[in-house]
Design goal:
Elements lengths: L1 H11 L19 H10 L11 H22 L10 H10 L2 H7 L5 H12 L23 H11 L16 H13 L10 H7 L3 H15 L10 E5 L4 E6 L2 E7 L16 E6 L7 H14 L3 H4 L2 E4 L22 E4 L10 E5 L7 E2 L14
Antiparallel strand pairs: 1-2, 2-3, 4-7, 5-6, 7-8
Helix pairs in contact: 2-5, 6-10
Length: about 375
Amino acid sequence: MLRLMVMLLVLVSPLRAAEPLLWHNGAGELNEAGQQLEDLLLPEPGGLAALSTAERDAWFSREWRQVLKQRARFAQFSLSPEQTEAGFNEALARGELNAYLHRQQPNYPAYLQLKQHYHALNPDSAITILPPGGEVRPGERDRAIPALRRRLAELGYALATPRGRADALDRSLSDILKGLQRAHGLPPNGRLTAETRAIVSRSPAELRAELRHNLRRWLLLPPTAPEQYLLVNIPAYRLTLFNSTGPAMNMKVIVGRPDWPTPELGTHIKALKVNPDWTPTANIIREDLLPAQRRDRGFLGRNGFGVWLPGAADRQDPATIDWQQPPAGLRLVQAPGPGNALGRFKFEMNNPFDIYLHDTPDKRLFGEAERA
């Protein structure tokens, strides 16, 4: 009899009561909290159509918890409980999802502008196709220019009426192309190049997919913007200082190579160091400095590096080290000076990646369009 009872328990266990719906009503439509969460997560249109109501409901919960986990990894400081999974769990327990999600809406002006642009794009609208052709320089005429003007208008650009021929790439149109090229990491030459044609020819559906990806990135930040903060846009190679009235300062930055990328993180600047020394990390020593020293035995000494060996109290001369088989655990320190890799200033920040904002003695790099 006991054996039969066990078998019956196994057979009936999948018939337990279904999980209550959090984001949908009984008719399978999104409730108010679900609509707010959909506006935050921006699921791909049609991507959830094949799922049942219960499956869609579970997807929303899993996806929001994933956002909160990513936010916790992004922040190199203590988040308030409201900004973590603990705040979500508390809102669930109290039945206050509407108010909770209202507080999760980012209030950053750039996010709000991006969201407005996303909703203004009609994924089904027709677009003007540029006719094929070669590169068009400022001042030149080409049959693609009238189509380019129409396409830029479709993308929301305000174009001045051409003073001369409508098929000429005039200065105002060239300036718009420069801004578009700069925003996409291209040399801002103001020409209608093959790369620029590809950018302006993207469909609304492609643009919306890109915007969705970037809007999700904003969810990693605390929802309420600080009174003052620095935003480093890694792929754009730009740093912007924001205060309560908007952007206050903007400058170029140099970031990590694509094969050694600068990590995404949020942190606090804790100190400014003037004329810093530099202690390179183990991977920089292994991948950059050791190969340079092996090619040129005077490299480290000429660039102001001292060597510290494990257990040794005194600085060692690089010329005394066998760089083909260097001692394990050695440490390199570059003295302050005009050739120091960190330049004259270093902003120290809490993070486990040894990332900080700093100056550089190699100012020519700021003239490059691609600064990775």
